[in-house]
Design brief:
The complex is a heterodimer of chains A (374) and B (224).
Chain A (H helix, E strand, L loop, with lengths): L1 H12 L1 H37 L3 E5 L3 H10 L8 E2 L1 H9 L3 E11 L2 E6 L1 H7 L3 E4 L7 E4 L1 H7 L6 E3 L14 E9 L10 E4 H7 L3 E2 L5 E2 L9 E4 L9 E2 L7 E2 L1 E5 L3 H12 L4 E4 L1 H44 L1 H9 L4 H33 L7
Parallel strand pairs in A: 4-9, 6-8, 8-12
Antiparallel strand pairs in A: 1-15, 1-16, 2-14, 3-4, 3-15, 5-8, 6-9, 7-8, 10-13, 11-12
Chain B lengths: L5 E10 L7 E10 L4 E5 L6 H9 L6 E6 L2 E2 L5 H11 E4 L11 H5 L1 H5 L7 H13 L15 H13 L5 E5 L7 H14 L5 E5 L11 E4 L6
The chains are: A alpha+beta (374), B alpha/beta (224).
Chain lengths: 374, 224
Protein backbone atom coordinates (compact mmCIF):
# COMPACT_ATOMS: atom_id res chain seq x y z
CA UNK A 1 0.00 0.00 0.00
CA UNK A 2 2.87 2.35 0.84
CA UNK A 3 4.31 1.78 -2.62
CA UNK A 4 1.00 2.68 -4.25
CA UNK A 5 0.60 5.68 -1.94
CA UNK A 6 3.99 7.05 -2.96
CA UNK A 7 3.33 6.21 -6.62
CA UNK A 8 -0.01 8.02 -6.52
CA UNK A 9 1.58 11.06 -4.86
CA UNK A 10 4.30 11.12 -7.51
CA UNK A 11 1.75 10.95 -10.34
CA UNK A 12 -0.37 13.61 -8.67
CA UNK A 13 2.60 15.95 -8.35
CA UNK A 14 3.59 15.38 -12.01
CA UNK A 15 -0.02 15.44 -13.14
CA UNK A 16 0.51 17.02 -16.55
CA UNK A 17 3.16 14.47 -17.53
CA UNK A 18 1.09 11.63 -16.11
CA UNK A 19 -2.05 12.83 -17.90
CA UNK A 20 -0.24 12.97 -21.24
CA UNK A 21 1.07 9.43 -20.74
CA UNK A 22 -2.37 8.16 -19.74
CA UNK A 23 -3.91 9.80 -22.81
CA UNK A 24 -1.26 8.29 -25.10
CA UNK A 25 -1.70 4.82 -23.61
CA UNK A 26 -5.47 5.21 -23.51
CA UNK A 27 -5.69 6.13 -27.17
CA UNK A 28 -3.45 3.22 -28.10
CA UNK A 29 -5.76 0.87 -26.22
CA UNK A 30 -8.95 2.60 -27.39
CA UNK A 31 -8.55 1.97 -31.12
CA UNK A 32 -8.39 -1.86 -31.09
CA UNK A 33 -11.03 -2.03 -28.33
CA UNK A 34 -13.35 0.27 -30.27
CA UNK A 35 -12.85 -1.57 -33.55
CA UNK A 36 -13.37 -4.95 -31.89
CA UNK A 37 -16.40 -3.74 -29.95
CA UNK A 38 -18.05 -2.03 -32.89
CA UNK A 39 -17.40 -4.94 -35.22
CA UNK A 40 -18.88 -7.36 -32.72
CA UNK A 41 -21.85 -5.11 -32.16
CA UNK A 42 -22.62 -4.39 -35.79
CA UNK A 43 -21.80 -7.94 -36.81
CA UNK A 44 -24.32 -9.11 -34.27
CA UNK A 45 -26.91 -6.54 -35.38
CA UNK A 46 -26.40 -7.49 -39.03
CA UNK A 47 -26.70 -11.18 -38.26
CA UNK A 48 -29.82 -10.73 -36.16
CA UNK A 49 -31.52 -8.59 -38.80
CA UNK A 50 -30.55 -11.03 -41.55
CA UNK A 51 -31.70 -14.03 -39.53
CA UNK A 52 -35.09 -12.35 -39.07
CA UNK A 53 -35.45 -11.98 -42.85
CA UNK A 54 -35.67 -15.47 -44.36
CA UNK A 55 -35.45 -14.64 -48.10
CA UNK A 56 -35.33 -11.58 -50.31
CA UNK A 57 -36.60 -11.61 -53.86
CA UNK A 58 -35.26 -9.06 -56.30
CA UNK A 59 -33.94 -8.56 -59.75
CA UNK A 60 -30.53 -9.94 -60.64
CA UNK A 61 -27.91 -7.52 -59.48
CA UNK A 62 -25.47 -7.11 -56.72
CA UNK A 63 -26.67 -9.17 -53.78
CA UNK A 64 -25.13 -6.80 -51.21
CA UNK A 65 -27.11 -3.85 -52.63
CA UNK A 66 -30.30 -5.89 -52.66
CA UNK A 67 -29.90 -7.14 -49.09
CA UNK A 68 -28.93 -3.73 -47.72
CA UNK A 69 -31.89 -2.16 -49.46
CA UNK A 70 -34.29 -4.75 -48.07
CA UNK A 71 -32.82 -4.83 -44.55
CA UNK A 72 -31.48 -1.32 -44.03
CA UNK A 73 -33.41 0.65 -46.67
CA UNK A 74 -30.13 1.83 -48.21
CA UNK A 75 -30.91 3.59 -51.47
CA UNK A 76 -29.36 1.79 -54.42
CA UNK A 77 -29.89 1.89 -58.17
CA UNK A 78 -31.71 -1.41 -58.36
CA UNK A 79 -33.85 -2.64 -61.23
CA UNK A 80 -37.45 -2.68 -59.98
CA UNK A 81 -39.26 -5.90 -59.19
CA UNK A 82 -42.79 -5.87 -60.65
CA UNK A 83 -45.63 -6.17 -58.18
CA UNK A 84 -46.80 -9.25 -60.09
CA UNK A 85 -44.07 -11.21 -58.29
CA UNK A 86 -45.93 -10.68 -55.02
CA UNK A 87 -48.95 -12.33 -56.57
CA UNK A 88 -46.72 -15.10 -57.97
CA UNK A 89 -45.32 -15.94 -54.53
CA UNK A 90 -48.80 -15.88 -53.06
CA UNK A 91 -50.09 -18.10 -55.83
CA UNK A 92 -47.31 -20.63 -55.20
CA UNK A 93 -48.72 -21.19 -51.72
CA UNK A 94 -45.17 -21.71 -50.48
CA UNK A 95 -44.58 -18.42 -48.63
CA UNK A 96 -45.92 -15.12 -47.48
CA UNK A 97 -44.65 -12.19 -49.61
CA UNK A 98 -43.98 -8.80 -48.00
CA UNK A 99 -43.44 -6.13 -50.67
CA UNK A 100 -41.03 -3.26 -50.09
CA UNK A 101 -40.42 -0.01 -51.87
CA UNK A 102 -37.49 1.90 -50.36
CA UNK A 103 -36.10 4.47 -52.79
CA UNK A 104 -37.22 7.80 -51.41
CA UNK A 105 -36.47 9.86 -48.34
CA UNK A 106 -38.32 12.34 -46.19
CA UNK A 107 -35.98 14.86 -44.57
CA UNK A 108 -33.19 12.33 -45.05
CA UNK A 109 -35.06 9.43 -43.45
CA UNK A 110 -35.90 6.48 -45.74
CA UNK A 111 -39.51 6.31 -46.87
CA UNK A 112 -40.52 2.65 -46.85
CA UNK A 113 -43.65 1.63 -48.71
CA UNK A 114 -44.97 -1.72 -47.56
CA UNK A 115 -48.01 -3.63 -46.32
CA UNK A 116 -49.23 -4.42 -42.78
CA UNK A 117 -47.51 -7.84 -43.02
CA UNK A 118 -44.19 -6.05 -42.65
CA UNK A 119 -45.16 -4.60 -39.27
CA UNK A 120 -46.18 -8.05 -38.09
CA UNK A 121 -42.94 -9.59 -39.38
CA UNK A 122 -40.76 -7.01 -37.59
CA UNK A 123 -42.89 -6.78 -34.46
CA UNK A 124 -43.58 -3.08 -35.02
CA UNK A 125 -46.22 -1.77 -32.66
CA UNK A 126 -47.67 1.73 -32.75
CA UNK A 127 -46.75 3.60 -29.56
CA UNK A 128 -48.97 6.49 -30.69
CA UNK A 129 -51.62 6.65 -33.41
CA UNK A 130 -51.91 3.89 -36.01
CA UNK A 131 -49.89 2.27 -38.79
CA UNK A 132 -50.34 3.95 -42.20
CA UNK A 133 -53.43 2.62 -43.85
CA UNK A 134 -54.33 5.21 -46.47
CA UNK A 135 -52.62 7.11 -49.24
CA UNK A 136 -50.56 10.02 -47.91
CA UNK A 137 -50.34 8.69 -44.36
CA UNK A 138 -47.05 7.96 -42.62
CA UNK A 139 -46.07 6.26 -39.39
CA UNK A 140 -42.60 7.09 -38.14
CA UNK A 141 -40.00 4.89 -36.52
CA UNK A 142 -39.20 5.99 -32.96
CA UNK A 143 -35.82 7.57 -33.73
CA UNK A 144 -37.10 9.30 -36.86
CA UNK A 145 -39.98 10.82 -34.87
CA UNK A 146 -37.57 12.03 -32.18
CA UNK A 147 -35.04 13.37 -34.69
CA UNK A 148 -37.67 15.21 -36.73
CA UNK A 149 -39.67 16.19 -33.65
CA UNK A 150 -42.89 14.96 -35.23
CA UNK A 151 -46.02 13.44 -33.73
CA UNK A 152 -49.42 12.34 -35.05
CA UNK A 153 -51.15 15.27 -36.76
CA UNK A 154 -47.89 16.80 -38.07
CA UNK A 155 -46.77 16.67 -41.69
CA UNK A 156 -43.44 15.76 -43.24
CA UNK A 157 -42.52 16.35 -46.90
CA UNK A 158 -40.65 13.83 -48.98
CA UNK A 159 -37.31 15.00 -50.38
CA UNK A 160 -37.05 16.16 -53.98
CA UNK A 161 -34.53 13.79 -55.58
CA UNK A 162 -33.37 16.09 -58.36
CA UNK A 163 -34.12 19.78 -58.11
CA UNK A 164 -33.20 20.35 -61.76
CA UNK A 165 -35.50 17.66 -63.16
CA UNK A 166 -38.46 19.70 -64.41
CA UNK A 167 -40.38 16.54 -65.30
CA UNK A 168 -40.21 15.19 -61.76
CA UNK A 169 -43.35 15.11 -59.69
CA UNK A 170 -43.75 17.36 -56.66
CA UNK A 171 -42.72 16.08 -53.25
CA UNK A 172 -45.54 14.58 -51.27
CA UNK A 173 -46.52 16.08 -47.95
CA UNK A 174 -47.09 13.06 -45.69
CA UNK A 175 -49.53 13.21 -42.82
CA UNK A 176 -48.09 11.63 -39.69
CA UNK A 177 -50.71 9.29 -38.25
CA UNK A 178 -48.57 7.32 -35.81
CA UNK A 179 -45.20 6.57 -34.22
CA UNK A 180 -43.89 3.03 -33.76
CA UNK A 181 -42.40 1.91 -30.45
CA UNK A 182 -38.59 1.64 -30.55
CA UNK A 183 -37.16 -1.71 -31.66
CA UNK A 184 -33.42 -1.00 -31.78
CA UNK A 185 -33.38 -1.79 -35.49
CA UNK A 186 -33.17 0.25 -38.72
CA UNK A 187 -36.99 0.40 -38.63
CA UNK A 188 -36.64 3.07 -35.94
CA UNK A 189 -35.16 5.46 -38.52
CA UNK A 190 -37.71 4.88 -41.27
CA UNK A 191 -40.88 6.63 -42.38
CA UNK A 192 -43.42 3.92 -43.21
CA UNK A 193 -46.13 4.48 -45.77
CA UNK A 194 -48.58 2.50 -47.84
CA UNK A 195 -47.24 1.15 -51.17
CA UNK A 196 -49.61 3.42 -53.08
CA UNK A 197 -48.00 6.39 -51.39
CA UNK A 198 -44.52 5.47 -52.67
CA UNK A 199 -45.91 4.99 -56.17
CA UNK A 200 -47.45 8.45 -55.90
CA UNK A 201 -44.08 9.88 -54.83
CA UNK A 202 -42.59 8.10 -57.84
CA UNK A 203 -45.08 9.88 -60.07
CA UNK A 204 -46.98 6.74 -61.04
CA UNK A 205 -50.02 7.83 -59.09
CA UNK A 206 -51.23 11.41 -58.93
CA UNK A 207 -54.16 13.62 -58.07
CA UNK A 208 -55.60 16.56 -59.94
CA UNK A 209 -55.56 19.13 -57.14
CA UNK A 210 -53.01 21.94 -57.47
CA UNK A 211 -49.89 21.52 -55.30
CA UNK A 212 -49.99 23.58 -52.09
CA UNK A 213 -47.35 25.80 -50.64
CA UNK A 214 -45.87 24.11 -47.64
CA UNK A 215 -43.13 26.52 -46.67
CA UNK A 216 -44.17 26.42 -43.04
CA UNK A 217 -42.80 22.89 -42.80
CA UNK A 218 -39.70 23.40 -44.84
CA UNK A 219 -38.74 26.89 -45.93
CA UNK A 220 -36.62 25.43 -48.73
CA UNK A 221 -39.59 23.66 -50.21
CA UNK A 222 -41.78 25.81 -52.44
CA UNK A 223 -44.62 23.42 -53.12
CA UNK A 224 -45.74 19.89 -52.34
CA UNK A 225 -48.62 17.62 -53.21
CA UNK A 226 -50.93 17.29 -50.25
CA UNK A 227 -53.30 14.38 -49.83
CA UNK A 228 -56.28 15.13 -47.61
CA UNK A 229 -59.78 13.82 -47.08
CA UNK A 230 -61.17 16.18 -49.74
CA UNK A 231 -58.84 15.16 -52.56
CA UNK A 232 -57.80 11.62 -51.58
CA UNK A 233 -60.37 10.07 -53.92
CA UNK A 234 -58.97 12.02 -56.85
CA UNK A 235 -55.58 10.27 -56.60
CA UNK A 236 -55.20 7.43 -59.04
CA UNK A 237 -52.58 5.57 -61.05
CA UNK A 238 -52.48 4.79 -64.73
CA UNK A 239 -51.32 1.41 -66.00
CA UNK A 240 -51.40 -2.18 -64.83
CA UNK A 241 -50.77 -2.47 -61.05
CA UNK A 242 -48.96 -5.76 -61.72
CA UNK A 243 -46.15 -3.78 -63.35
CA UNK A 244 -45.81 -1.21 -60.56
CA UNK A 245 -42.30 -1.27 -59.11
CA UNK A 246 -40.97 -2.64 -55.85
CA UNK A 247 -37.35 -2.56 -54.68
CA UNK A 248 -37.57 -6.00 -53.04
CA UNK A 249 -39.96 -8.60 -51.72
CA UNK A 250 -39.29 -10.22 -48.36
CA UNK A 251 -40.37 -13.84 -48.64
CA UNK A 252 -41.36 -15.72 -45.50
CA UNK A 253 -41.69 -19.48 -46.13
CA UNK A 254 -43.09 -21.67 -43.36
CA UNK A 255 -40.29 -24.24 -43.61
CA UNK A 256 -36.95 -25.06 -45.25
CA UNK A 257 -38.54 -27.21 -47.91
CA UNK A 258 -40.76 -24.37 -49.12
CA UNK A 259 -37.78 -22.04 -49.05
CA UNK A 260 -35.68 -24.42 -51.14
CA UNK A 261 -38.46 -24.94 -53.68
CA UNK A 262 -39.12 -21.21 -54.01
CA UNK A 263 -35.43 -20.39 -54.38
CA UNK A 264 -34.95 -23.03 -57.03
CA UNK A 265 -38.00 -21.91 -59.02
CA UNK A 266 -37.19 -18.22 -58.78
CA UNK A 267 -33.49 -18.52 -59.57
CA UNK A 268 -34.34 -20.57 -62.65
CA UNK A 269 -36.15 -17.55 -64.09
CA UNK A 270 -34.07 -15.02 -65.97
CA UNK A 271 -33.61 -11.64 -64.32
CA UNK A 272 -34.78 -12.68 -60.84
CA UNK A 273 -32.88 -13.76 -57.76
CA UNK A 274 -34.07 -15.17 -54.45
CA UNK A 275 -31.31 -14.68 -51.92
CA UNK A 276 -30.81 -15.57 -48.29
CA UNK A 277 -29.75 -12.43 -46.35
CA UNK A 278 -28.07 -14.58 -43.67
CA UNK A 279 -25.72 -16.08 -46.28
CA UNK A 280 -24.96 -12.66 -47.78
CA UNK A 281 -24.27 -11.14 -44.35
CA UNK A 282 -21.99 -14.09 -43.48
CA UNK A 283 -20.09 -13.46 -46.69
CA UNK A 284 -19.85 -9.74 -45.95
CA UNK A 285 -18.64 -10.32 -42.38
CA UNK A 286 -16.04 -12.73 -43.74
CA UNK A 287 -14.67 -9.92 -45.92
CA UNK A 288 -14.79 -7.47 -43.02
CA UNK A 289 -12.91 -9.90 -40.77
CA UNK A 290 -10.22 -10.34 -43.40
CA UNK A 291 -9.80 -6.57 -43.54
CA UNK A 292 -9.79 -6.49 -39.75
CA UNK A 293 -6.78 -8.81 -39.71
CA UNK A 294 -4.77 -6.16 -41.54
CA UNK A 295 -6.04 -3.60 -39.07
CA UNK A 296 -5.10 -5.88 -36.17
CA UNK A 297 -1.58 -6.20 -37.56
CA UNK A 298 -1.36 -2.42 -37.81
CA UNK A 299 -2.58 -2.12 -34.24
CA UNK A 300 -0.04 -4.69 -33.05
CA UNK A 301 2.79 -2.72 -34.66
CA UNK A 302 1.48 0.54 -33.19
CA UNK A 303 1.17 -1.13 -29.78
CA UNK A 304 4.72 -2.47 -30.02
CA UNK A 305 6.03 0.99 -30.96
CA UNK A 306 4.15 2.44 -27.98
CA UNK A 307 5.73 -0.16 -25.70
CA UNK A 308 9.17 0.80 -27.02
CA UNK A 309 8.40 4.45 -26.23
CA UNK A 310 7.20 3.46 -22.78
CA UNK A 311 10.46 1.57 -22.25
CA UNK A 312 12.40 4.63 -23.34
CA UNK A 313 10.40 6.83 -20.97
CA UNK A 314 10.96 4.39 -18.09
CA UNK A 315 14.70 4.44 -18.78
CA UNK A 316 14.85 8.23 -18.96
CA UNK A 317 12.64 8.55 -15.91
CA UNK A 318 14.91 6.24 -13.88
CA UNK A 319 17.88 8.39 -14.87
CA UNK A 320 16.09 11.61 -13.94
CA UNK A 321 15.05 10.14 -10.60
CA UNK A 322 18.46 8.83 -9.64
CA UNK A 323 18.81 11.29 -6.73
CA UNK A 324 15.38 10.44 -5.41
CA UNK A 325 16.06 6.71 -5.58
CA UNK A 326 19.43 7.25 -3.88
CA UNK A 327 17.67 9.05 -1.02
CA UNK A 328 15.15 6.22 -0.68
CA UNK A 329 18.00 3.71 -0.50
CA UNK A 330 19.76 5.80 2.18
CA UNK A 331 16.57 5.82 4.21
CA UNK A 332 16.34 2.04 4.08
CA UNK A 333 14.41 1.22 0.90
CA UNK A 334 15.40 -2.04 -0.71
CA UNK A 335 16.58 -2.26 -4.33
CA UNK A 336 13.29 -3.89 -5.18
CA UNK A 337 11.41 -0.96 -3.68
CA UNK A 338 12.55 1.42 -6.42
CA UNK A 339 11.40 -1.08 -9.04
CA UNK A 340 8.11 -1.65 -7.26
CA UNK A 341 7.56 2.10 -6.96
CA UNK A 342 8.01 2.64 -10.69
CA UNK A 343 6.00 -0.47 -11.52
CA UNK A 344 3.18 0.83 -9.29
CA UNK A 345 3.22 4.16 -11.12
CA UNK A 346 2.96 2.44 -14.50
CA UNK A 347 0.31 0.12 -13.18
CA UNK A 348 -1.78 3.08 -11.98
CA UNK A 349 -1.32 4.82 -15.31
CA UNK A 350 -2.14 1.58 -17.13
CA UNK A 351 -5.35 1.17 -15.12
CA UNK A 352 -6.28 4.80 -15.80
CA UNK A 353 -5.51 4.39 -19.52
CA UNK A 354 -7.56 1.19 -19.72
CA UNK A 355 -10.44 2.84 -17.89
CA UNK A 356 -10.18 5.81 -20.26
CA UNK A 357 -10.20 3.51 -23.28
CA UNK A 358 -13.20 1.57 -21.94
CA UNK A 359 -15.03 4.81 -21.18
CA UNK A 360 -14.30 5.95 -24.72
CA UNK A 361 -15.69 2.71 -26.12
CA UNK A 362 -18.74 3.02 -23.87
CA UNK A 363 -19.30 6.64 -24.94
CA UNK A 364 -18.95 5.59 -28.57
CA UNK A 365 -21.41 2.75 -28.04
CA UNK A 366 -23.89 5.12 -26.40
CA UNK A 367 -23.42 7.76 -29.08
CA UNK A 368 -24.10 5.35 -31.92
CA UNK A 369 -27.65 4.04 -32.33
CA UNK A 370 -28.10 0.42 -31.37
CA UNK A 371 -28.55 -2.09 -34.15
CA UNK A 372 -28.12 0.40 -36.96
CA UNK A 373 -25.08 0.78 -39.15
CA UNK A 374 -23.68 4.32 -38.84
CA UNK B 1 32.00 0.39 32.31
CA UNK B 2 29.30 0.86 29.65
CA UNK B 3 30.26 -0.60 26.27
CA UNK B 4 30.89 1.86 23.40
CA UNK B 5 27.99 2.59 21.08
CA UNK B 6 30.19 2.66 17.96
CA UNK B 7 33.48 0.85 17.63
CA UNK B 8 35.88 0.66 14.66
CA UNK B 9 38.93 -1.63 14.81
CA UNK B 10 41.71 -1.81 12.24
CA UNK B 11 39.35 -0.61 9.55
CA UNK B 12 40.84 -0.26 6.09
CA UNK B 13 38.78 1.04 3.21
CA UNK B 14 40.19 1.67 -0.21
CA UNK B 15 38.62 2.47 -3.51
CA UNK B 16 40.01 3.69 -6.80
CA UNK B 17 38.55 6.92 -8.10
CA UNK B 18 38.63 7.60 -11.79
CA UNK B 19 41.55 9.82 -12.89
CA UNK B 20 42.73 10.21 -9.32
CA UNK B 21 45.06 8.47 -6.94
CA UNK B 22 43.54 5.53 -5.01
CA UNK B 23 41.66 6.60 -1.92
CA UNK B 24 42.37 4.82 1.36
CA UNK B 25 41.26 5.29 4.94
CA UNK B 26 42.89 3.47 7.82
CA UNK B 27 41.21 3.74 11.22
CA UNK B 28 43.19 1.72 13.76
CA UNK B 29 40.85 2.20 16.70
CA UNK B 30 37.81 4.35 17.44
CA UNK B 31 35.12 4.13 20.08
CA UNK B 32 32.14 6.47 20.56
CA UNK B 33 30.21 6.52 23.80
CA UNK B 34 26.44 6.23 23.76
CA UNK B 35 25.02 9.74 23.80
CA UNK B 36 28.27 11.35 22.62
CA UNK B 37 28.02 14.34 20.25
CA UNK B 38 30.86 14.01 17.77
CA UNK B 39 31.95 16.46 15.07
CA UNK B 40 33.77 15.03 12.05
CA UNK B 41 36.07 17.51 10.35
CA UNK B 42 38.71 17.60 7.66
CA UNK B 43 39.35 19.14 4.28
CA UNK B 44 37.06 18.48 1.34
CA UNK B 45 37.58 15.08 -0.27
CA UNK B 46 39.53 13.71 2.69
CA UNK B 47 36.94 11.00 3.39
CA UNK B 48 34.53 12.39 5.98
CA UNK B 49 31.48 11.11 4.14
CA UNK B 50 33.22 7.76 3.48
CA UNK B 51 33.86 7.44 7.23
CA UNK B 52 30.21 8.20 8.02
CA UNK B 53 29.05 5.70 5.39
CA UNK B 54 31.29 3.02 6.88
CA UNK B 55 29.70 3.59 10.28
CA UNK B 56 26.22 3.48 8.76
CA UNK B 57 26.90 0.24 6.91
CA UNK B 58 26.48 1.86 3.51
CA UNK B 59 30.08 0.91 2.74
CA UNK B 60 31.92 -2.21 3.86
CA UNK B 61 35.63 -2.05 4.74
CA UNK B 62 38.10 -4.39 3.06
CA UNK B 63 39.40 -5.30 6.52
CA UNK B 64 38.67 -4.55 10.15
CA UNK B 65 35.34 -4.39 11.96
CA UNK B 66 32.63 -1.80 12.44
CA UNK B 67 30.39 -2.50 15.42
CA UNK B 68 27.32 -0.46 16.34
CA UNK B 69 25.24 -1.21 19.41
CA UNK B 70 26.84 -4.62 19.69
CA UNK B 71 26.18 -5.57 16.05
CA UNK B 72 29.15 -6.14 13.79
CA UNK B 73 27.80 -4.17 10.86
CA UNK B 74 30.71 -4.95 8.56
CA UNK B 75 29.89 -8.65 8.76
CA UNK B 76 26.24 -8.31 7.79
CA UNK B 77 24.75 -9.06 4.38
CA UNK B 78 23.37 -6.19 2.34
CA UNK B 79 19.85 -6.95 3.54
CA UNK B 80 21.12 -7.21 7.09
CA UNK B 81 22.85 -3.86 6.85
CA UNK B 82 19.70 -2.31 5.44
CA UNK B 83 17.67 -3.68 8.35
CA UNK B 84 20.35 -2.39 10.71
CA UNK B 85 20.18 1.11 9.21
CA UNK B 86 16.40 1.19 9.45
CA UNK B 87 16.52 0.28 13.14
CA UNK B 88 19.66 2.07 14.25
CA UNK B 89 20.54 5.03 12.04
CA UNK B 90 18.91 8.32 11.17
CA UNK B 91 20.31 10.43 8.34
CA UNK B 92 20.42 14.17 7.81
CA UNK B 93 21.75 15.36 4.45
CA UNK B 94 23.40 18.60 3.35
CA UNK B 95 20.95 19.00 0.44
CA UNK B 96 18.00 17.91 2.61
CA UNK B 97 17.00 15.18 0.11
CA UNK B 98 13.29 15.70 0.62
CA UNK B 99 10.91 14.28 -1.94
CA UNK B 100 9.32 17.16 -3.80
CA UNK B 101 6.10 15.25 -4.48
CA UNK B 102 5.32 14.53 -0.84
CA UNK B 103 3.96 16.92 1.75
CA UNK B 104 6.15 17.97 4.68
CA UNK B 105 4.34 15.52 6.96
CA UNK B 106 4.69 12.66 4.45
CA UNK B 107 8.39 13.43 4.10
CA UNK B 108 8.82 13.15 7.87
CA UNK B 109 6.97 9.83 7.86
CA UNK B 110 8.81 8.53 4.78
CA UNK B 111 11.02 6.00 6.63
CA UNK B 112 7.84 4.26 7.76
CA UNK B 113 6.63 3.96 4.17
CA UNK B 114 9.92 2.54 2.94
CA UNK B 115 10.54 -0.07 5.61
CA UNK B 116 8.15 -2.91 6.31
CA UNK B 117 9.87 -3.28 9.70
CA UNK B 118 8.49 0.09 10.81
CA UNK B 119 4.76 0.36 11.47
CA UNK B 120 3.07 3.56 10.36
CA UNK B 121 0.55 3.75 13.17
CA UNK B 122 -0.84 6.38 15.47
CA UNK B 123 2.26 6.70 17.75
CA UNK B 124 4.45 7.45 14.71
CA UNK B 125 1.99 10.03 13.41
CA UNK B 126 1.75 11.65 16.85
CA UNK B 127 5.54 11.76 17.12
CA UNK B 128 5.82 13.31 13.65
CA UNK B 129 3.25 15.95 14.58
CA UNK B 130 5.11 16.72 17.82
CA UNK B 131 8.42 17.04 16.00
CA UNK B 132 6.90 19.36 13.42
CA UNK B 133 5.37 21.45 16.18
CA UNK B 134 8.68 21.79 18.00
CA UNK B 135 10.35 22.66 14.70
CA UNK B 136 7.73 25.38 14.14
CA UNK B 137 6.49 23.63 11.01
CA UNK B 138 2.94 22.66 11.96
CA UNK B 139 1.48 25.37 9.73
CA UNK B 140 3.33 24.04 6.70
CA UNK B 141 2.83 20.31 7.34
CA UNK B 142 0.60 19.97 4.30
CA UNK B 143 2.80 21.96 1.94
CA UNK B 144 5.40 20.66 -0.49
CA UNK B 145 9.08 21.08 0.44
CA UNK B 146 9.70 23.20 -2.66
CA UNK B 147 7.60 25.99 -1.14
CA UNK B 148 9.72 26.18 2.04
CA UNK B 149 12.89 28.11 2.83
CA UNK B 150 16.15 26.16 3.04
CA UNK B 151 16.17 26.41 6.81
CA UNK B 152 12.63 25.06 6.98
CA UNK B 153 13.56 22.23 4.62
CA UNK B 154 16.50 21.21 6.80
CA UNK B 155 14.28 21.26 9.86
CA UNK B 156 11.98 18.86 8.00
CA UNK B 157 15.06 16.69 7.29
CA UNK B 158 15.91 16.68 11.00
CA UNK B 159 12.36 15.71 11.93
CA UNK B 160 12.58 12.84 9.43
CA UNK B 161 15.86 11.64 10.96
CA UNK B 162 14.45 11.81 14.49
CA UNK B 163 11.01 10.35 13.91
CA UNK B 164 12.09 6.69 14.08
CA UNK B 165 14.07 7.37 17.28
CA UNK B 166 17.15 5.72 15.78
CA UNK B 167 19.89 5.76 18.47
CA UNK B 168 22.62 6.82 16.02
CA UNK B 169 22.19 10.02 14.03
CA UNK B 170 24.51 10.76 11.13
CA UNK B 171 24.41 14.28 9.75
CA UNK B 172 26.43 15.06 6.63
CA UNK B 173 27.06 18.83 6.67
CA UNK B 174 23.46 19.59 7.57
CA UNK B 175 24.16 23.32 7.80
CA UNK B 176 26.39 23.57 4.75
CA UNK B 177 23.71 25.37 2.74
CA UNK B 178 22.39 27.58 5.54
CA UNK B 179 23.27 31.08 6.78
CA UNK B 180 24.54 31.62 10.34
CA UNK B 181 21.23 32.48 11.96
CA UNK B 182 19.41 29.61 10.30
CA UNK B 183 22.28 27.26 11.21
CA UNK B 184 21.86 28.10 14.88
CA UNK B 185 18.12 27.54 14.73
CA UNK B 186 18.50 24.21 12.97
CA UNK B 187 21.20 22.96 15.35
CA UNK B 188 19.22 24.15 18.37
CA UNK B 189 16.38 21.96 17.20
CA UNK B 190 18.69 19.01 16.55
CA UNK B 191 20.48 19.17 19.90
CA UNK B 192 17.30 19.90 21.80
CA UNK B 193 15.40 16.96 20.33
CA UNK B 194 18.26 14.47 20.48
CA UNK B 195 17.74 11.99 23.29
CA UNK B 196 20.54 11.98 25.88
CA UNK B 197 21.46 8.37 25.06
CA UNK B 198 21.43 8.93 21.27
CA UNK B 199 24.73 9.40 19.55
CA UNK B 200 25.31 12.17 16.99
CA UNK B 201 27.99 12.00 14.31
CA UNK B 202 28.01 15.25 12.37
CA UNK B 203 30.26 16.20 9.50
CA UNK B 204 30.97 19.91 9.39
CA UNK B 205 33.34 22.47 7.91
CA UNK B 206 32.26 25.16 10.31
CA UNK B 207 34.80 25.52 13.13
CA UNK B 208 32.41 27.89 14.87
CA UNK B 209 30.09 25.00 15.65
CA UNK B 210 32.62 22.74 17.34
CA UNK B 211 31.88 24.08 20.82
CA UNK B 212 28.52 22.31 20.67
CA UNK B 213 30.19 18.87 20.46
CA UNK B 214 31.77 16.57 23.03
CA UNK B 215 34.52 15.53 20.69
CA UNK B 216 36.00 16.35 17.29
CA UNK B 217 37.39 13.71 14.93
CA UNK B 218 39.76 14.83 12.19
CA UNK B 219 39.50 12.33 9.33
CA UNK B 220 42.77 13.54 7.79
CA UNK B 221 44.55 11.62 10.55
CA UNK B 222 43.16 8.40 9.07
CA UNK B 223 44.03 9.09 5.46
CA UNK B 224 46.64 6.55 4.38
Amino acid sequence: MNTFYLAAQHLRFHRVRATLLVLALGLTAFMPLAVHGLLARYGDALTRRAAATPLVLGTAGHRFDRVFNALYFRAAELDPVPYSEVDAVLASGLALPVPLHARFTARDHPVVGTTPEYYALRGLRAAAGTPPLRLGEATLGARAAAALDLRPGDRVPTDQRDLYDLTASYPLSLEVVGVFAPTGTPDDDAVFVDLKTTWTIAGIGHGHAAPERSGAMDPGLATAQVVNDENRASFHAHGDPATFPLTAIIVVPPDDKSATLLKARTNARPGLRMISPAAVVDELLGIVLKIKRFFDAHQAITGFATLLFVGLIIGLSARMRRDELWTLAQLGASRGFALRLQAAEWLLMGVAATALALLGVLALALALPDGVLP
Amino acid sequence: MEPAHVTLRQVRFRHARAAEAPFELHIPQLALRRGERVAVVGPSGIGKTTFARLVAGLLVPQSGTVTVAGTEVSALSEAGRRAFRVAQVGFIFQRFELLDYLSVLDNVLLPYRLNPALRLETPARVRAAQLLEEAGLTAVAGRRPGTLSQGEQQRVGICRALVTRAPLLIADEPTGNLDGKTTDRVLDLLFHRLQPDHTLLMITHDAGLLHRFDRTLDVSEWRA
